[in-house]
Amino acid sequence: MIALVALAVPFVAAVLAPLLGRFLSRWLAIVLSLFPLVLFLFWLRLVPFFTGGERESIGVPWIPSFGVEFSVLLDGLSLTFALLVSGIGTLIVLFAGAYLKGDERLPRFLCYLFLFMGAMQGLVLADDLIMLFVFWELTSISSFLLIGFERERMASRRAAIQALVVTGLGGLSLLAGFLLIRYASGASSMSELLAMENGLRDLPVYLACFILVLGGAFTKSAQFPFHFWLPNAMEAPTPVSAYLHSATMVKAGVYLLMRLQPAMGDTILWETVLPVFGAITLLVGTILGLRQTDLKLVLAYTTVASLGLLVMLTGFGTEGAIAGAVLYLVAHSLFKGGLFMVAGGIDHEAGSRDLRQLSGLRHGMPLTFAIALLCALSMGGLPPFVGFLAKEELYYGLVGDDAWSMALLAVAVIGNGLMLALGFIVGLRPFLGKDMKAPKKAHEGPLDLWIGPAVLAVCGLGAGILYRFFHEMISIPMASAIAGQPVPVEISPIPHLSIAFYLTLLTIALGVGIYLLQDSLRAGVDRTLTALGWGPDRGFDQAIAGLTTVSHRITYFFQNGRLDIYMTTVFCALAFTVLFSLSFFAETPALPEWPALAIHEWTILLIIVVGIGTVIMAHNRLTAIVSLGIQGFGVAVLFMLQGAPDLSFTQFMVETLSVVILALVMTRIPLAKTDHRSNPEKLVDGGIAILCGIGIGALLLSVTQTPFDGRLSEFYEQFSRTIAHGRNIVNVIIVDFRGLDTLGEIAVVMVAGLAVLGLIRIRRPRIEDIATPTGDRS
Which of 269, 302, 733, 746 is most buried (CB neighbours < 10 A)? Predict the structure, then answer.
């Protein structure tokens, strides 16, 4: 149960961040970093209990009526992600404190950051499908706040909205998929899905579930053609880029696919669609990254490419491919988070992220250079770093004799070669050169600014050197959880003569060649993409602009400011709904027999009819309002004659207040004194009124002709004394059994009264202001 409590820790830190910011402005980030550090140590303590492929679900009822639980699923996959979220989160908090030092917005930024941390941690640990979706959407909302943190900049606002729209639509697709899975399989949690013998493969709705789940996963993990939002999200402060869009959030879609691999994998559809889109994303991301000169954008596009590689490996589905995906996921989080923080440190201390303005930084920032080089070596897949283990293992996993395996292997080699070059473009090029060029005199930043990337760089090196321990604690449990069966991982940093080693040499040669020709290749890619014209990013703007235009036109059509059109639309809809429903469902009532009425009852009905005629024929508003009350008073008298004095009294009060309020309000509004409608308009309005009257009358007759179900009345009679302690059943219903309804009705009446009071207090217009010779006011 402590695991459930641990989910709340980041949210507690989010609440405390603005409060502590008033007193601990200098030490705020250091103090708050203790929260994710404690979480990291807690999850790390649980790792040894799940090294044998164990899986445990813990939960409590959340919404029992819908079968929703607040539950967590602990295994090698979820614990690895929890370690990444909390461990890298600790370093990011420290980095953010130094990066935004002296910024009065730091407490708010950390509040948003912890809100995201809690959402991402809940997502990767959630067992219940609905709980997972709730945290999934919370990551979208919190990332929206972080991406648009610098809200005074148009580019930040656009990027935030774009990310929210794309991932939000994907979230709706995922929700539909989860609901369909629950309906079709009866499983409401991941643990139940994983326990099913054939998973979802044999369900007739597998295709629909597959498409809906992919809609959520592909948008969140920026797969082609939804890749465009992630590079634009680099408008966020660098700590956001390093945390959300490299180590955590963008891997949520990959996590979902990995989690569902045992339940939805091993089908032709899964093993075709995922590798194809993953391969396309890998190539698109690396090629577009080669075009960039901004350090963060280069890293952003390589993140897109890396996500494509992970999706491709997950879809390929062999044990080797899954092991390679596991190793690469961890390696990517380490080296990419470190490189992003390096880029932030360069921007902070050198004043620019533009490659064309940076060179020779090793002279002023030697420590940062060493950290960047270590991360670049891991990203390039060179021994003895964990990136080398990942690259070797995924090559082993993709090797095959068929054309499909060879094609994917070729894509992986090309993509890894491009990523090696891009890694060294970020981690090496700004530091080379004899003279140090930068807008500012570059120097090493404070400890908080480089401790984070240094720890990640060392972890990338240590995981490669201590590969046996790393496999035992991380690689094997995580790969086994994804595959649904034990998966051995034995890759070592010692090169062996094999097809994977030869492919590594080819990758290095390709990467070095691209690095040396980077300027000419960048110009060629830029010319090619310019010639192709706008892509998905520009298409998003066009789609939003079109949607806005259509929305405005629909709004102006229905909300044009004319009360007569509003009322006509409402009453037409009312008449159509009632009459169509009665006819379609064969609920048209039978004509009732004419009752035998007494003389006084005939008199009251005659008065009601005369009142109706007076309302129609009245030439001024006051006469029409008073005549309108005649119907209500007549109905009240009928209630009294039928033995319902309390109902009659209520009707009398309502009608009296209605007449008074209408008289006060309508006499204060500048309306035309006479009806300027033409005869055809009067005929149409009269026809609509008659149809509404017929419809409501038929509905009431249909209800009265339905056999009466007295169970509710019997319930009130039986329990009004014992539960509510009241003798007047009507009062008990209003005050006790339906107390909240009554409260809502009182609130509505109060709001209406305030509106009436506002109208009454308006200065009465002069006669000349009311004159409407053209008859435009009605």
Answer: 302
Provide the domain count of the chain: 1
DSSP 8-class letter at 324: H
CA-to-CA separations, 242 to 88, 236, 343, 672, in angstroms, rounded: 9, 10, 9, 66
Count of Cβ atoms closer than 10 Å to residue 66 Cβ:
10
Q: What is the predicted pLDDT for the residue at 549? A: 92
Q: Highest mean pLDDT: which of 35-49, 54-68, 636-650?
A: 35-49
The type of residue at 722 is T
560 alpha carbon, distance to own chain's centre: 33
Closest alpha carbon to 729 in 741, 742, 740, 715: 715
> Measured in whole angstroms, how far is the alpha carbon of residue 540 from the centre of its chain?
18
Question: What's the domain range around 416?
Answer: 331-516
Q: Which residues contact 762 (CB under 8 A, 6 or more apart)?
A: 668
CA-nearest of 386, 377, 413 to 489 is 386
Question: How many Cβ atoms from other residues are within 10 Å of residue 462's Cβ?
Answer: 16
Taking every pair of Cα atoms in the chain, the longest distance, rounded to a whole number of angstroms, is: 113
359 φ, ψ to 5°?
A: -170, 155
CA–CA gap between residue 519 and residue 428 (Å, rounded): 15
Average pLDDT over residues 255-268: 93
Determine, yes or no, domain membership for 385: yes
In this predicted structure, what is the pLDDT of residue 80? 94
User: H-helix or E-strand containing 71?
Assistant: strand 68-74
- pLDDT for 247 equals 65
177-230, pLDDT tens digit by residue? 999 999 999 899 999 999 888 889 989 999 999 999 999 999 999 899 998 899
What does the chain come to in residues? 778
pLDDT at 672: 63
Rg of the chain over Cα atoms, rounded to whole angstroms, equals: 35
Nearest-angstrom CA–CA distance, 639 and 652: 10
Burial code of 30-65, b = ≥16 C-beta within 10 A, e = fewer? Answer: ebbbebbbebbebbeebbeebeebebebbbeeeeee
Sign, CA dihedral 89-90-92-93, equals positive
- Give CA torsion, residues 651, 653, 657, 660, to 10 deg: 100
The whole-number pLDDT of residue 632 equals 82
pLDDT of residue 145: 94
* Whether the predicted model's global pTM rises above the 0.90 cut: no
List C-alpha distances in Å: 267 to 310, 312, 317, 403, 617.
18, 14, 10, 18, 75
Residue 673 has pLDDT above 70, yes or no: no
Taking a C-beta distance cutoff of 8 angstroms, is the pair 213, 180 a contact?
Answer: no
pLDDT of 295 > 70? The answer is yes
Residue 346 lies inside a defined structural domain of this protein: yes
Q: Which residue has the higher pLDDT, 777 or 348?
A: 348
Read off the pLDDT band of 611 (50, 70, 90). confident
Would 536 be classed as within a structural domain? no
620 lies in a domain? no
The closest of 290, 310, 309 to 300, measured between CA atoms, is 290
Q: Could you tell me the CA-to-CA distances from 245 to 81, 336, 345, 595 in Å, in that order?
A: 14, 10, 17, 76
- Tell me the average pLDDT across 527-548: 85
Please give the pLDDT value at position 670: 64
Per the CB < 8 A criterion, the answer to whether 409 and 420 are in contact is no
**C-alpha span between 194 and 53 (Å, rounded):** 13
Closest to 43 measured CA to CA, from 77, 11, 91, 93: 77
